[in-house]
Every structure is written in C-alpha cells, then in structure tokens.
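Note to self: the last two entries modelled the partners one at a time, which told us nothing about the interface. This time every component goes in together.
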Amino acid sequence: MTELFLSFRLAFFVTAILLVLATPLAYWLAFSKFRAKFLVEAVVALPLVLPPTVLGFYLLVAMGPRGPLGKLWLALFGHTLAFTFTGLVIASVLYSLPFCVQPLVASFERIDPKLLAASRVLGANSWRTFRTIVFPLSIPGVITALVLTFAHTIGEFGVVLMVGGNLLGATRTVSISIYDHVQSIEYAAANQLALILLAISFVLLALVYGLNRSVGVRWLSN
Amino acid sequence: MAVELASTELRVRVLLSRGAFQLDPFQLDVDFSVPSGITILFGPSGAGKSTILDCIAGLITPDDGEISVGTKELYSARRGTNLPAQQRHLGYLFQSAALFPHLTAKQNVEYGIAHLLATDRNSTVSEVLKLFRIEALASRKPVGLSGGEAQRVALARALVTNPKALLLDEPLSGLDAELKSSIIADLRAWNAAHQIPILYVTHDRAEVDALGERVITMDKGKVVQQGIPRQVLDAPRKESLALASGFENILEGTVKEVRLEDGIMRVALNSSASIEVPLGHNKPGDTVRIAIRAGDILLALARPTGLSARNILQGTIQSLEQRSVTMICKVFAGAIFEVHVTLGAARALGLRPGSEIWLVLKTYSCHLVS
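The predicted structure of the combined assembly is written out below.
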C-alpha cells in the first residue's frame, strides 16, 4: 500500500506543477505568432515518441553528481536528485508535459478569435481576457489535461525505474512494485495491485468523459 | 458647432502591404475621416474594409499612417504611437456578434465597465438594456438568443462603455429588413445624444440606401469615392436621376406662396391640397415638380398634433400591395402618393383600401426637381 500511496502523491504533485507550468506554455503555443514556434512544439511532444528509457537516461545523467541539475541540487541541498522523490517529480513533470500541454492548446485554439478581439476592444488586458474568457471556455480541456496527466503519471514505469530506482517509500511506485512481484513470481500480489490500478484508471477516465459532457453542456446553456 | 464636430472626428490614414489579407496582391492605402454620425464604408468583399476596422481597433498594426479620434492619437507611425486595443476606447461590433458564450446577456453588457462601482454599473446597464429593448433577455445565455437579439446585446455591450467611435463590421447582414431598421433606429437614437463617429462596413447596396448619411466607397484597398449621398442621391436635380435613386413620388404642383424669411414655398397639388417645400428659384404661379421618397412619408389614423413635420394631409387609401416585406400603399390626397410601410405597421394600423388616412411629411423630404 505504501507504493500505491507514493504513486498518488507523485501524480498529485506532478499534476499541480504542470497546471501552473503548462497553462502559460499552452497559451503561448496557441496564440503566439513566433516563427520558430514549431521547434518548441516538437520539443514538448518529444516524450510522446521517445522510449522512456532514453528520457530517463538523460535525466539520470543530468541529475547525477556530475550533471548540471545534480550539481546545482548538491550545492543547494547537500544531496543529488537521482533516486529521490523530488527527482522523480521533476522527471515525471517532463515526461507528462505533452499530456497536459496538448489538450490545453487544443481547447485554447478552439476559442473564436473574435471573442478575444471583443474582450480586448472592451478594455480587457491579456490577463483579464485569459481569466474571464479563455480559461472558463477551456474548462473541459483543462479537466482532460489534468486527468490525463494524473493517470499517465500513475502509470509510468521506464522513467521512474531509470531515475528513481526502486526504494520503498521514496521511489517505489505501484508500477515498479507490480514488476517486482512478477519478477519474484508473486502473481497474487501483482494481480492485486494491477487490478486496483486498472479500476482507478477506468474510474478517472469515465469521470473525465462524463464531466466533460455535462460541463460543456451546462456551461453554455441557460 | 463645426469646432465641436471636428473634435470628435475619426481620422484614418493607413498604409498596409503585408500579406494580412487573403486575396493578397494589393496594398491597403486609404485616407479618410469620419465625422459624428453614421458613415458607410462600402465595397465588395475582399476590398480591405474589415482590415481597416481592425487597424482602427488596434487588432492589426499598419505599416504607416495615423489614426486618431478627436484629439486623441491612437496610432502614428511617425511618432511611434500605437495604443493597444484595450486602451483605445472604441466600440467594435462583429458580424458574428461575438458574445461571450458562458456569460448571460447582462454579464456580457457589463464586461466593458467592470471598473465601475457596482451601483453605477447596475444603473448604467439597466439603462442601456432598456434603450436597446433587451431587458427581458438579461439573464439568458447567448445560445438562447436569436440573431437580432444577439446583435442588440452586442451593440449594448459596445455602447455601454461610451466609446469614442463605433466600428460595425456588417453587423446586420442576415437579419430581415424590419429588424435591421429597428436596430438602426435605436442606434441613431443613442447617437443623437452621444454624437460619436460610426463607421459601418457593408457590401450590401440596399444597406447603403437605407442608412446612408455619408458613404466611402472602396475597392482593392483604395478609396474610390467619398461623399454625402444626400447631395448626390437625396437631392437630385434631374427627374430621371430622382427616379433612379428611388424617389417613388414625382408630383406636379403650382407655387402658391414664397416665404423667403422661412426658406420655404407653399405648392398647391390641386384646388384643396397644398404642401410646404424648401425654397427654390421660383415665383408664385410657376409649375414645379417635387420628388418624395415613399419611405419618407408617415401614415396616421387620426390627425396628428404636436409634430414638427409641416405637411399633414388627409387622404384615402386607394390600393394596397405587398411586395416582399414592404406594404406599398397608394393614397389620394390632392395627388396620388406612394407610401411604403412595413408589414407590421400595415397590420397595426389596420390599413384597408377606402379607409381614411393622414399623411405626414417633412418639408425637407420634399425635393424640387426639374
């Protein structure tokens, strides 16, 4: 159960951090006219196509005692990031970035540009336009982004194994634990955890689809 | 008066050659000014009309030029001024109304005056909701509004901020003529008190005729013609031109009396009926022709009193004929007058052939032609 709790704690932190980081990034990707924007889009999408081991490997090197991130952390906190919960959070934020950014970009882009023009002409600056028009109209996309991020973080395996290793209570997540059980031929224990994970994932996804429908309908009707 | 008008004027000189519009290879190069009142920007689709509105609103930055309202400079390439859209204090009405779909009609109207105190905001909003006849819609979301209702809300939302100028991008296309003219009438009523420049973009010739105080004609990014259609169309000197510009009534009469001091003449249509018309180079006894638009004549069931209109004639309806959304009514009142009223008005008055009716027309709706 420690593993299950750790997975949820990880997913919660990653989702919260990504909401703060991915929203401005998605806003920029949706509305900026910057020419080299496609390069940023490609970088954001990288975790979708890279094998988790590749991302995990580079993160491990960066977080190690000789890596830039590891050195910085060592200087600040007296230990490196590799094989710590914090390291896991950072790695997962990067790994789940596209799952948060892409639904947000898609829903921002769906907003009629005339609404944004109307808001500006009525005296609202970009922050107020975002707060009162863009964000409220994107709520279904925001919910999708948050749940996808959460579920994806709970389900990740390769990056966690590379960066976090397998330390009970610090980096041993549910997916690692299932793998451990299978390796030791403890199928009953593996099955128990796998079943819980399956159920949780299903409930979360069903919640998103259900909520998206009712929120979308209620929001715009009388 | 002239000074006052000049200080509210919208001045636009815009040069734009970037590929900002789809049917590219022309350059936008215009220079015009818009006094208070409605000015129509007329031209075919793709002429660059909407791009000009976007430049004025601050949504597009031109390559060169100046844009100002009254004494306030919005954009100047030379001085490097370029106020962001949210600081220009303009009203902009899009063809799509662009109401915020998650807000009620009232919340939409309040959007531009969020900085006011709640009490001021409430009174201002209820005033404007009343003026544009949308009080009943206040708590509805845009999805439940008809096209005409949505545009009324959008108009109220733009005007409640007391903009320095109003830009309209084909806001009424797609609405029927009756709805259109009632919205325009409300806009005119609002502007009678505020006197701001209103730039109305359309590619519909009928709208130019229905609205026009001034017209600027555009094609391929350039101003082709600008002027006051009243000078050209509304006061035609020739009868042929009068017929061509939509004057359904050309009446013949005899000058009975010339009153130089009042600037009018009295013209007899027959032995009993006479009308007052603007002064011409005529003397009593001359035969004159008078052109009157069918839409400039009002009908009343009883003799109206307390009106500024000088010509009130009693007559009899001879025939009624419905043509699309207009009721064409022929009335004998010393001569045969053709009068156009909306179907709703014809219904409300219960017009029938043979019934008695009063005609009301202003002196300045009577134009002398030769």
